[in-house]
């Protein structure tokens, strides 16, 4: 059977690495089937005030940066008529009922129940209203919200009994939710807009989603949604609930805070597969290593091995993973970036081979481009006699990989210097830095004319 999954972000901010975890779990799970797997990007954009087109565009761009290319894209804002029809079906079936309590009324009821040691569950008081009473409330200007009547009773809705909803979770194994322990959920607000629970179920049912993988904070909601799937005549999909990511301090991630947003990580020059690897492998068994591509990352992902508890991760790991990837990148992958920095096309291979071990980001190659081809800031050295001797012994071109060794051997013989006293003044005079790539590789790129000018 084809796996049809979805990633359903709200375009109310830039997605972060925790959101990416959900997207990748779904993408990798579906693409185990190759092209047969179907990945839907569905924008949950019914929040009219906070949803922005620029955030939707950014989400798509961020996913594509990682390598996720949706097979289809949908928007809840385009599907209002579908939700209208579903609400009409629920009303006709008698399982969606109007409620007139204000938020203040409900909060007061919850406090009273808790003060009595009772769970703060809605008591279905609105079901006791007669049709005449409802019409009177409407005539007085009261606008109802609408609740879904959970199937947690035999005949009398005011006598709920334990009603278990069970499923075999793709990640956690057998799960149970007792509907008698929950309030009837609100599906329609007073202003007529629809809540996530309704829209998500209708979309998954209408669009044929057969597997839903999402965060563990949705487990209770899954029990309600399974009941709603059945009330609407849909076969529920298979569910999986992965653990959530937190910062090292244990704080949750939020689009509003911008913490570890994919947009910021991309702007910082972090490699996309470093982000993807950390998003997926945190909390799994085995070492966190940078996967070369999504296919390799998919081979590491075993849903039943995902930790059941929240996983903390260190953002410093991104630096390590990104550096590992950069150090292994072939020159052809970075050629456009290097040429844009001003590296001569014919020297890209040699330049990248020389400097990549000193770059945690590709953008850092610009430092070494300046060292090789530009006019780096050079310190004033109190070693003029030594540098003059080195200049006098500078070999003629062409230069190659052995030129540095041949030159320094000659300088050592002429000056008697060795080790740090020999090499450090030459490095400082040629690069302006006390660290960096091997000068055996840099020297032919700097060239005799620039070397001579820097020693003079």
UniProtKB/TrEMBL annotation:
<dbReference type="InterPro" id="IPR014729">
    <property type="entry name" value="Rossmann-like_a/b/a_fold"/>
</dbReference>
<protein>
    <recommendedName>
        <fullName>Glutamate--tRNA ligase</fullName>
        <ecNumber>6.1.1.17</ecNumber>
    </recommendedName>
</protein>
<dbReference type="InterPro" id="IPR000924">
    <property type="entry name" value="Glu/Gln-tRNA-synth"/>
</dbReference>
<dbReference type="InterPro" id="IPR049940">
    <property type="entry name" value="GluQ/Sye"/>
</dbReference>
<dbReference type="GO" id="GO:0005737">
    <property type="term" value="C:cytoplasm"/>
</dbReference>
<dbReference type="GO" id="GO:0005524">
    <property type="term" value="F:ATP binding"/>
</dbReference>
<dbReference type="InterPro" id="IPR001412">
    <property type="entry name" value="aa-tRNA-synth_I_CS"/>
</dbReference>
<dbReference type="GO" id="GO:0004818">
    <property type="term" value="F:glutamate-tRNA ligase activity"/>
</dbReference>
<keyword id="KW-0547">Nucleotide-binding</keyword>
<dbReference type="GO" id="GO:0000049">
    <property type="term" value="F:tRNA binding"/>
</dbReference>
<dbReference type="Pfam" id="PF00749">
    <property type="entry name" value="tRNA-synt_1c"/>
</dbReference>
<keyword id="KW-0067">ATP-binding</keyword>
<feature type="domain" description="Aminoacyl-tRNA synthetase class I anticodon-binding">
    <location>
        <begin position="393"/>
        <end position="455"/>
    </location>
</feature>
<dbReference type="InterPro" id="IPR020751">
    <property type="entry name" value="aa-tRNA-synth_I_codon-bd_sub2"/>
</dbReference>
<dbReference type="InterPro" id="IPR020058">
    <property type="entry name" value="Glu/Gln-tRNA-synth_Ib_cat-dom"/>
</dbReference>
<keyword id="KW-0030">Aminoacyl-tRNA synthetase</keyword>
<keyword id="KW-0648">Protein biosynthesis</keyword>
<dbReference type="InterPro" id="IPR008925">
    <property type="entry name" value="aa_tRNA-synth_I_cd-bd_sf"/>
</dbReference>
<dbReference type="GO" id="GO:0006424">
    <property type="term" value="P:glutamyl-tRNA aminoacylation"/>
</dbReference>
<dbReference type="InterPro" id="IPR004527">
    <property type="entry name" value="Glu-tRNA-ligase_bac/mito"/>
</dbReference>
<comment type="similarity">
    <text>Belongs to the class-I aminoacyl-tRNA synthetase family. Glutamate--tRNA ligase type 1 subfamily.</text>
</comment>
<feature type="short sequence motif" description="'HIGH' region">
    <location>
        <begin position="9"/>
        <end position="19"/>
    </location>
</feature>
<feature type="short sequence motif" description="'KMSKS' region">
    <location>
        <begin position="252"/>
        <end position="256"/>
    </location>
</feature>
<dbReference type="InterPro" id="IPR045462">
    <property type="entry name" value="aa-tRNA-synth_I_cd-bd"/>
</dbReference>
<feature type="binding site">
    <location>
        <position position="255"/>
    </location>
    <ligand>
        <name>ATP</name>
    </ligand>
</feature>
<feature type="domain" description="Glutamyl/glutaminyl-tRNA synthetase class Ib catalytic">
    <location>
        <begin position="4"/>
        <end position="317"/>
    </location>
</feature>
<keyword id="KW-0963">Cytoplasm</keyword>
<comment type="function">
    <text>Catalyzes the attachment of glutamate to tRNA(Glu) in a two-step reaction: glutamate is first activated by ATP to form Glu-AMP and then transferred to the acceptor end of tRNA(Glu).</text>
</comment>
<keyword id="KW-0436">Ligase</keyword>
<dbReference type="Pfam" id="PF19269">
    <property type="entry name" value="Anticodon_2"/>
</dbReference>
<comment type="subunit">
    <text>Monomer.</text>
</comment>
């Amino acid at each position: 059977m084809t796996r049809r999954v979805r990633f359903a972000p709200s375009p109310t901010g830039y997605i972060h690495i925790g959101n990416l975890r959900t997207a990748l779990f779904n993408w990798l799970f579906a693409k185990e089937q190759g092209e047969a797997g179907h990945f839907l990007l569905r924008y949950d954009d019914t929040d009219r005030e906070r949803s922005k087109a620029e955030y939707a565009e950014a989400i798509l761009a961020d996913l594509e940066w990682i390598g996720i290319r949706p097979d289809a894209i949908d928007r809840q804002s385009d599907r209002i008529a579908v939700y209208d029809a579903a609400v009409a079906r629920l009303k006709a079936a008698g399982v969606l009922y109007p409620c007139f309590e204000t938020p203040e009324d409900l909060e007061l009821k919850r406090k009273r129940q808790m003060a009595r040691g009772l769970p703060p569950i809605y008591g279905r008081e609105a079901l006791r209203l007669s049709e005449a009473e409802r019409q009177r409330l409407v005539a007085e200007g009261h606008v109802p919200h609408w609740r879904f009547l959970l199937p947690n009773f035999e005949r009398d809705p005011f006598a709920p009994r334990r009603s278990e909803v069970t499923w075999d979770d793709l990640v956690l194994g057998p799960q149970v939710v007792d509907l008698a322990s929950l309030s009837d959920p609100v599906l329609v607000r007073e202003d007529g807009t629809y809540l996530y629970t309704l829209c998500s179920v209708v979309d998954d049912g209408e669009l044929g989603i057969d597997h839903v993988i999402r965060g563990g904070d949705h487990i209770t909601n899954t029990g309600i949604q399974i009941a709603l799937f059945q009330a609407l005549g849909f076969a529920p999909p298979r569910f999986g609930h992965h653990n959530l990511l937190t910062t090292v301090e244990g704080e949750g991630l939020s689009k509003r805070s911008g913490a570890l947003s994919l947009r910021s990580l991309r702007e910082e020059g972090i490699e996309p597969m470093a982000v993807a690897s950390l998003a997926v492998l945190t909390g799994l068994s085995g070492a966190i290593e940078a996967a070369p591509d999504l296919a390799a990352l998919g081979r590491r992902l075993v849903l039943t091995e995902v930790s059941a508890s929240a996983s903390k991760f260190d953002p410093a790991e991104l630096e390590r993973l990104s550096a590992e990837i950069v150090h292994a990148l072939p020159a052809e992958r970075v050629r456009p970036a290097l040429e844009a920095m001003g590296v001569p096309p014919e020297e890209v291979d040699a330049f990248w081979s020389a400097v990549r071990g000193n770059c945690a980001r590709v953008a850092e190659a610009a430092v070494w481009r300046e060292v090789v081809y530009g006019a780096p800031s050079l310190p004033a050295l109190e070693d003029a006699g030594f540098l003059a001797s080195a200049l006098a012994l500078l070999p003629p071109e062409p230069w190659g990989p052995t030129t540095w060794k041949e030159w320094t051997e000659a300088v050592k013989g002429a000056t008697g210097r060795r080790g740090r006293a020999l090499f450090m003044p030459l490095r400082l005079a040629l690069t302006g830095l006390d660290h960096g790539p091997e000068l055996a590789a840099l020297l032919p790129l700097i060239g005799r004319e620039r070397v001579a000018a820097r020693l003079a």
